[in-house]
Amino acid sequence: MNKDFEYRGYVFTITVNLNTRIERCLGGKHWHTVVTTCGKLNYHVTELVLENELKTYVEESEITIHKYIDDEIDGELPVYHEYLSNNDFK
Questions:
Q1: To 10 degrees, the CA torsion angle through 18, 23, 27, 30?
Q2: CA distance 15 to 37
Q3: What is the CB neighbour count within 10 angstroms for residue 20?
Q4: pLDDT given at position 57
Q5: Phi, psi at residue 17, to the nearest 5°?
Q6: Which of 29, 69, 85, 86 has minimal Cβ neighbours within 10 Å of its Cβ?
Q7: What is the 3-state secondary structure (H, E, C) of the chain?
Q8: pTM of the model as a whole
Q9: What would the pLDDT profile of 58-69 be if each residue is shown by its tens digit?
Q10: What pLDDT, in 10s, does the model give residues 2-44?
C-alpha cells in the first residue's frame, strides 16, 4: 500500500508492506514494514512496526518529515552543530 504526499515542493512516498513478519503461534504478533522515501532529498527510512503501532507510526512519520523539511529549508541547525562549533570544530 502506498501513500504519496507533497510538502513544500518535496514529494514523499510512504509504502507499507503488510505482514512482513509473523509469529507462528496462537495470538502471534504481526509486523509490517514501513518505507518512507523522497528521491529529491535522498531521504530513505525503513522501519519494522508492530500491527497495533502502525497507525501511530505513520502519523508520526508525517510529522517527522514536516520537521525535517522545515529544518532543511529554513536552515535551523541541529543541536550537535552548536556544540561542535563551541568546541573549536570547523
A1: -20
A2: 8
A3: 13
A4: 94
A5: -100, 115
A6: 86
A7: CEEEEEECCEEEEEEEEEEEEECCCCCCCEEEEEEEEECCCCEEEEEEEEHHHHHHHHHHHHHHHHHHHHHHHHCCCCHHHHHHHHCCCC
A8: 0.74
A9: 999 999 888 888
A10: 999 899 889 999 999 999 999 999 989 999 999 999 888 888 9
Cell numbers at residue 39, please? 528521491
Rounded CA-CA distance 48/37 in Å is 15
Q: How far is CA 63 from CA 43, 55, 66, 68, in A?
A: 15, 13, 5, 9
Residue 69, C-beta contacts closer than 8 angstroms, at least 6 positions apart: 7, 8, 10
